Amino acid sequence: MSVESNRPAAAPVPGRTLGIVALVVAIFFNVIGLILGIVALVQSRKAGHKNGFAVAAIIVGAVLTVVGIIVAILVVSAIGFGAAAYQACEAAGFTGTVLVNGNEVACSTLGG
User: Fold this and answer.
1) Long-range Cβ contact pairs of 22-30 (< 8 A, separation 24 or more)
2) pTM listed for this prediction
3) For the segment 41-67, what is each residue's pLDDT rounded down to a tens digit?
């Protein structure tokens, strides 16, 4: 004979599912995951609950957004430097070295 509990089923924490979704989304789509994490955290806090998944989504989304911005700046800077170096070496006939933004570039490394 089994004893059944008369306890009601635990109510789901508001925003918890959205917090989990936000964490997964934050890994691939940083800003969207960050926003969803904030929404999930607000929902949970209004109901008086903690939401670790939402906090994690906010942290991951914010950190990866900042890292993405830094990487984008570095890539754009490198592309700009590379284009300037190529143009300078092209003008020099791809021989010797040229000075680009205070940096010496060997034109033999760029080819032509």
Assistant:
1) 22/53, 22/54, 22/57, 22/58, 22/61, 23/53, 23/54, 23/56, 23/57, 23/60, 25/57, 26/57, 26/58, 26/60, 26/61, 26/64, 27/60, 27/64, 30/60, 30/61, 30/62, 30/64, 30/65, 30/68
2) 0.75
3) 999 999 999 999 999 999 999 999 999
